């Protein structure tokens, strides 16, 4: 039989995961919208101009992979190593999302190789990923302090 304390810990764990997911989706959406803003007036592969809708769907899709990796990352101790691996995972996912948008709106209409697409995506993404990562670090540290203090 579960005690009230163990039920409370499970509930806090679920809330913590939801907050991580929500933070990732919001920052991912803003980061991709900023990084790929030069491409918003170009049609996508399905001939629509719904840039923000495409970015939101991409953020939600990538968040599935984030949640799976998050379950592994949160088990890492100490916190500094967890933070480094977490940030690498997030940067990789954000870059991949930007690469998908670039491929859909720019490279799909041209003759870019995968290497050239990655190079141009990196060029578009460098500052937005750096800024998003700084915000991510700040929010992650606040959340960590909040959840560790409540233990």
Task: Describe what this molecule looks like in 3D.
- The chain crosses the membrane at residues 17-35, 55-74, 79-96, 124-144.
- Keywords: Membrane, Transmembrane, Transmembrane helix.
- The protein is mainly alpha-helical.
- It has one domain (4-40, 48-149).
- Helices cover 78% and strands 0% of the residues.
- It has four helices and no strands.
- The protein has helices at residues 4-35, 51-73, 79-105, 114-149.
- The chain is elongated, with a radius of gyration of 18 Å.
- The mean pLDDT is 89.
Helices and strands in order, then pairings?
Blueprint (H helix, E strand, L loop, with lengths): L3 H32 L15 H23 L5 H27 L8 H36 L2
Helix pairs in contact: 1-2, 1-3, 1-4, 2-3, 3-4
Q: Which blocks of ≥5 consecutive residues have pLDDT under 50?
A: none
Helix run count: 4
Strand residue content: under 5%
- Averaged pLDDT: 89
Number of strands: 0
Overall morphology: elongated
Rg for CA atoms: 18 Å
Q: List the domain count as a whole number.
A: 1
List the main descriptive attributes of the protein structure presented here.
mainly alpha, 151 residues, 4 helices
Report a brief summary of the structure.
This protein has 151 residues and is an all-alpha fold.
């Amino acid at each position: 039989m579960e005690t009230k304390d163990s039920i409370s810990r499970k509930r806090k764990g679920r809330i913590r995961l939801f907050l991580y997911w929500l933070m990732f989706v919001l920052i991912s959406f803003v980061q991709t919208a900023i990084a790929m803003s030069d491409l918003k007036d170009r049609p996508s592969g399905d001939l629509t101009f719904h840039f923000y809708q495409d970015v939101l769907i991409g953020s939600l899709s990538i968040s599935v992979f984030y949640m799976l990796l998050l379950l592994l990352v949160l088990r890492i101790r100490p916190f500094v190593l967890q933070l480094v691996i977490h940030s690498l995972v997030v940067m990789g996912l954000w870059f991949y999302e930007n690469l998908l948008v670039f491929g859909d709106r720019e490279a799909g209409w041209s003759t870019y190789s995968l290497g050239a697409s990655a190079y141009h995506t990196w060029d578009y993404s460098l500052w937005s990923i750096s800024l998003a990562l700084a915000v991510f670090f700040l929010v992650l540290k606040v959340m960590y302090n909040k959840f560790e203090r409540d233990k």
